[in-house]
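User: C-alpha cells for this one?
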Amino acid sequence: MVDTVLRRVTAERLLLEYDDARSGGFEPLRGVPDDKVVVLGLVTTKSGALERRQDLLARIDDAARHFPREQLALSPQCGFGTSFVGNNITIDEQNAKLRLVAETANLAWP
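Assistant:
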C-alpha cells in the first residue's frame, strides 16, 4: 500500500522520517519512481542523544539496497521545533546533530 502511494506523489523530493523503529524498513522505497530524490530523515529531533555515524552509514547502505544511492539524501527527521513548546533539545545538541548530518553525508556521498 505504501509503495502504491509513493508512486502517485508528484513531488520531486520525498522527505521521509526514518528515525525510529516505528518508521519501519526501507522496502517501500522500491515503489518510488526513479525520477525522485528520497531524503532519509534518520537523525531524530526529539532528543539530544547523538546518533552514531556508523549506524547512519549502515542505514544509508540498507536504503540503497532498495533505491539508487545517488538519489538518496540525509537529513534530520523533522524540524527541531515540532510543537509550539518545541522538543527537549538544546541549541548545542541541535548544532551537533546538524554537523553529524553534514559529515555523514560527505562520507556517504563523497
